[in-house]
Amino acid sequence: MRFIDEVKVEICAGSGGPGSSAFRREKYVPKGGPAGGDGGRGGHVYLIASKDQNTLLELYTQKHIRAKHGQSGLGKNMNGANGADVEVIVPVGTIIKDENGHVIIDLDHDKCRYMVAEGGLGGLGNQHFATSINRTPRYAQPGITAEPAIFFLELKCMADVGLLGLPNAGKSTLLSRISNAQPRVADYPFTTIKPKLGQVLMGHSDGFVVADIPGLIEGAHEGKGLGDRFLRHIERTSVLLHLVESVSMLEQSLQQQIDEIEHELSSYGKKLTEKPRILIINKIDALDQEGRDHLEEEVKLLSLPYLLISAVTGEGIDELLYQTWDMVKQKKMNA
What we know:
By secondary structure, this protein is α/β, with parallel strands linked by helices. The chain is 17% helix and 24% strand. Mean pLDDT is 84; it is low at 185-192 and 219-226.
């Protein structure tokens, strides 16, 4: 399925049906009165968040959403039927903005429901306008016309933990090892081209959700590579796991790898650099003893808490999960 996290859509509720101008015609009633029914209400348009949805693809292909109009009023004081409402399912974490970019609502939990367009009221039939002076009014109200409006929808994934790092840092391999996600894993950069979510189980029912975003490169915040437009998906996370690979130290020092990601996070803004973070040094299975000794000397100079792991062999994974789980629980308690 194609991953779509931004969409522009035109939404229009249904217009109200016009009231009826009718009169009673009964055999034994010599002077019948007004008997026009009211028009039906136009249909509403609702956006409903669902945890079972993970893309805005349906809206991307649809572009225009219109509810049904209310039916006209009828004679014998019968009201017209209301127009059918339209319910559109969107992923949890969808933000609705008006055409000026102002946030209207954040659908941040499952089954959150918002009426984005209200149907027009139906017009009153002529029965409502009878007076002692005018007993046979021929006027009936038209229904209220609903006007279309432009909305921008933006998806930000709902995850507790975000994985970030340079391309080929091993994020996809780690995600597949610790969660139920099955991302593409290969030995070339940018195997992840869209955010992936995985559920990590801790015990029988507890756990946390991990989001893996495409690898960042220098200048990502300016639009280079794939990561800039996906950084929004870790804005909601409680903890960030920053992956660097130990084997890249031959080309780029540990501090250089860290600084490159640090620069992109601070340039993007949104307080990403203030989030609790664990530095994960991956692929230690590829180091010999001399390489490990050199790595230990370099990590002692770092200020970030760190863990040495191998996403391939599983070394250090248990400690990583428990440390991450503790940080997530602590963050939720303080929220």
